[in-house]
Amino acid sequence: MTHRIFGKIKTAAEPFLAKAEKLRAGTEAALNRLISENRRAKNGKNKGFIHLAAENRHTVAIIFTALILVYYGIGATVSSKINNTLNAELKTTQTSPRYITAALTHVLKTQVDDSPWTPALPIIFPAAILDNLPNFQLGVKDAAKFLTKRLSSFYASRKLKEAEELLGYPADIWLFSQTENDKLAPGSAKQYRKALAKISDFGTSPDTKFAASPSEYVYLLKSLNILLQRQITNLTRHVQEHNSELIDFKADNIFYKTQGVAYVVSYMLTALLKDYQDLIVRTEQYEEITSALKSLESAVMLDPIAVKNAATEDAYAANHLIYLAFYLSQASKHITEMQYNTILKLKEDAHAD
What we know:
By secondary structure, this protein is an all-alpha fold. Helices cover about 70% and strands about 0% of the residues.
């Protein structure tokens, strides 16, 4: 009975099932035709575009070059601003009362936090084609490393030693090491931020004997003078070796790197003025330090349209490296006077007592 009922239902449903299958087959065939036509249309368009591009390859090349120039030109212009402001206020706190720590952290922060670290940028970034800004940042980093090393030696500080090592990390690493088969590696800016934190920790550490003292003052003056003398030597050597060349492509590199060093020295000298104001006034060195700061400001603010390294005997062409060396030598002269006159004054005071 049941089988007969199911048989009748099947017989009655067969026409409808046949129509459904026919409709399904027709719909599938129509969809296949639409897909094929769409593919043929796309292929035709692609062939047409390729053919058109090949026929007008010169125009395409010009447009492509223009887009590249616009991308790098505008991008580099926007990101080429050198952070070399000298009038920023150095801030201290109750836990970190020394201005020399504030100065070191400030100059590093302006280059690795407030600005992109351009020496490590790959070519996909417009700033990668810049020359002046990366060299300025390298000068700041190298000067901060030198002074951190000097302070580390003076205080035998583990934190400063670690900061010095971090600042010695290669400057051109973005995400990949360029010396170890392109393996993933910490970025340069990341390591320098760690160094910045170590310097800050040194300034706030309660177990650090970080009190201002005349011996530290004289030691830091000597350290700043060593930095300046090295830059003067590098500048004069470069002028002697390359000023006979028609075009000196390396002149702007050393120029802006030296300005980065001068920027750091200026802030450190400002910090000494604040940390040792009483000593400077007592030893009558205020005029010397302000004159040194003025010379350093002139060095940092020197901004030629193009850096020239003309022959020194040429009366009609500029040599901006010589100008820069002159300002640094003036600053060095005043710092030397401060150093020796302070030592002399302290000895006189000691004999008087």
